[in-house]
Amino acid sequence: MSRGGGRVDRLELWLGGVATPDVAKRFVRLSRTFAGDDAVIEQHERTQTNRHGLQSARRNEWVTILDAALVESGLADAWLHEQLSNASDIRWAESSHRRPRIHHNGPLKDEAHPFVVASGRVVDVLDVDLDEANIDAIVAVALDNDISAMTIRCGVDAELQPRLQGSIDRQMRNRQGRRKAFLTRHTTSNHLLLCVQYPQNSDT
Fold it and tell me: Which of 20, 110, 138, 167 has the fewest Cβ atoms within 10 angstroms?
């Protein structure tokens, strides 16, 4: 069970009559509120899915960062088959356990699903380092893409990250862009990927 953010709040093992017959695995994402509905994914048969490696960084592909607890549960493939019309197109990034990431050719059926941390379409590929020397140029590219808010969603030094995010927030404050975005890093080429986030009114 998880309340999101990759954290597992409680593990339970039910045996005997209280267990559901024919369910091999179950993952429960607890609602953030007591009145909300919990999200549940079940797998009735154990399946093996081939995982493809990343292609080169490119515009217009989709990037989704998943709830780390979903991936650790072993049910990510089962859930993705429900969310994508062609799950064979999924390319897994060799990212950290904290930010499991997939690349795919079209949007999820439900980009606001509780198992999704962020999902968006790549609108620009930047061949620069994510550092203080380049942050102004990165923000300029975001503004050219009609972006009003951008969140860093890749590994950055713990002391550097708040300075970079603070610079982004200050430069984008009071701008008239209509879209929200996140910034991540291609695992193999190290290019930065600027992704317009969907749904567009979701929190960054």
Answer: 20
